[in-house]
Amino acid sequence: MSEPSRAAPAATVTADALHRFAQDVFVRAGMPPADAAIVADVLVWADLRGVDSHGVSRITMYLRLIDDGDMNLTPSIKIRTETSASVLVDADRAAGPIAMTTAMNAAVRKARDAGVGLGLVRATTHTAALGYYTLMAAQEGMAAIALAASTPFMAYHGTRAAGVSTNPISIAVPGGARGPVVLDMATGVVARGKLVQARKTGRPIPAGWALDRDGNPTTDPQAALIPLPLGGPKGSGLSLMIELITSLVVSNPIIAGALEVAGDGTRHRQNGLVLAIDLRRFGDPEAFRSEVDRVIAALKALPHAPGVLEVLMPGERGSRAFEDRTRDGIPLPRAIVDELRGVATRFGVTSFPSAG
Amino acid sequence: MSEPSRAAPAATVTADALHRFAQDVFVRAGMPPADAAIVADVLVWADLRGVDSHGVSRITMYLRLIDDGDMNLTPSIKIRTETSASVLVDADRAAGPIAMTTAMNAAVRKARDAGVGLGLVRATTHTAALGYYTLMAAQEGMAAIALAASTPFMAYHGTRAAGVSTNPISIAVPGGARGPVVLDMATGVVARGKLVQARKTGRPIPAGWALDRDGNPTTDPQAALIPLPLGGPKGSGLSLMIELITSLVVSNPIIAGALEVAGDGTRHRQNGLVLAIDLRRFGDPEAFRSEVDRVIAALKALPHAPGVLEVLMPGERGSRAFEDRTRDGIPLPRAIVDELRGVATRFGVTSFPSAG
């Protein structure tokens, strides 16, 4: 049932070994060890959850951002605004996981006092898997929302060009015996990673997934370039609102500037917004947890659609992958193993797990 | 371009006349005049915006909720929890517009001090068009979010039954010369109103819109009963999270109880969540407004998809309808005119505009 292993893995490694490797690489690249540990944690968490597109496969991208000067290894992160219920974190181009965990920790702290805590993140880089941050808050007994705004590559509804990002949204709440519920979804019909994967396998993609470089609909995996928004105007509208309520609130607009310059000259940057709501301030957290389990049980008991073996909750596939992979290790495909070996060589890191 | 007039209207009435009529009806039904004015305002606003499904066509439904004892005409609305940045409004089954405007006014007030304000609404009824409340905040210089949670009638992904509601989400921000941007979307592929409309016209509906009463996919407008979620697991996941972060936070779960009882015995009820972010606390509101106009201009300048005359922003169609209908009046179809004449007779209200 779990999505992960489409091809036989070239290696299966433990989360610990992968974490050590990732941390070593970022330290060698010049990142303070505590920061490198956080980045490694967020990436390996995505691999454990089966979200391979947001795991260690991103290490090479992060290194490129460092090489290009887009990601700042030694940022001077500042709290620019602070109120009783909010902070605006100026991230100085810190790695996304550093900025987003800083903001969520602050939001959780604020929510303990004020019932609600808002963390705004200005000028970070790839925010990785948003579910990591909302789950952090859920584990503190909070309901949480996270948004991230990025550079345009998805079609805006009604156009034949990249106009917005697939800006994701995550919502999480604590649960009872079944654990937290964590939604983490992009505003596109399909993740960009799936287009990349189709290109590798050569399998045609469904109609309605993507446009080619000229803005024409295509099912050719080699031509597919611009993902289409979820539900047309709804997906691109939601994505635009995330840019407005995130990037524009922190005075760091991304979309307009990127669309105004001809060519692909825009630098990588992102902004983020996190929100935590302290359940204890508004009701009984234990009752909340049992009500979560109760609604899950009710939904799972509904008659299934044809061919469906099990009704799944948001994030359920991911938490099962997490259990499986924590026990059995993380399978890595050949292309990623080769990439990471190259990284190991470049940085003289010997900790890349060689287990086959 | 505007959606409204599909059939020749049976009557075209001014917003003022319609407002007077709606207010009179609710006052005769037993609602305090100030409350009746707010309900009338929210309903007529939806008609002005061209969202006919959420306008005065709902008066008969509201009267039924009153008759059934689900809507409380003289609620004792209480602030159950109050912190520096939040309120929990126990609405005592007040009409949705009363509860939601109370919560948004509180959220805006809180946000002025704390940067962010959260308003939670427990136990209200039909919350009407959420864009009304987020626009209220935008007009106060705030970015805003509104969510509403309701009884199940949409399919949960993977099932063949109604498991969640089409729980809507609205996000709005202030704008510059082009005015505010207001997204207001349901989490279903299609609004229930469109299924009702297809039933009336007899036109087949597109595949992927709805299931019949037995949970089978259908394109027959007479058989279509259960709308499908936007993008499968994304739409039903988002809808479920709205139930969790709204209804469960205010200790008034809706879905589980409704699914556990056999038959359709559940009473109408809703919960809501509104959030306001004061732009002044985090940046320059004037710069924000011009950046909104700038990104709109950039998106509108993108090459159009074939057959598309104009690239539209969230809520743009609605604000044009608002201008047109404020000037020209609100067209009402025959069925609604007949319904409202019936209402006028029942309550001895003579103010129903008879202009043809």
What does this structure look like?
Two copies of one chain form a homodimer. Chain A folds into three domains: 1-72 and 326-356, Hypothetical Oxidoreductase Yiak, Chain: A, domain 1 (Orthogonal Bundle), CATH 1.10.1530; 83-188 and 229-314, 2-Layer Sandwich (Ribosomal Protein S8, Chain: A, domain 1); 189-223, Hypothetical oxidoreductase yiak, domain 3 (Wheat Germ Agglutinin (Isolectin 2), domain 1, 2-Layer Sandwich), CATH 3.30.60. In chain A, 40% of the residues lie in helices and 19% in strands. Chain A has helices spanning 15-29, 33-48, 59-67, 96-114, 131-138, 192-201, 233-247, 255-260, 285-300, 316-328, 334-347, and strands at 11-13, 78-82, 86-94, 116-124, 142-149, 154-155, 162-164, 169-173, 181-185, 210-211, 217-218, 226-227, 270-278, 330-332. Residues 1-5 of chain A have low confidence and may be disordered. Chains A and B meet through β4, β8, β9, α7 and α8 of A and β4, β8, β9, α7 and α8 of B.
Set out the fold topology.
The structure is a homodimer of 356-residue chains.
Chain A: E1 11-13, H1 15-29, H2 33-48, H3 59-67, E2 78-82, E3 86-94, H4 96-114, E4 116-124, H5 131-138, E5 142-149, E6 154-155, E7 162-164, E8 169-173, E9 181-185, H6 192-201, E10 210-211, E11 217-218, E12 226-227, H7 233-247, H8 255-260, E13 270-278, H9 285-300, H10 316-328, E14 330-332, H11 334-347
Parallel strand pairs in A: 3-4
Antiparallel strand pairs in A: 1-14, 2-3, 4-13, 5-8, 5-13, 6-7, 8-9, 10-11, 10-12
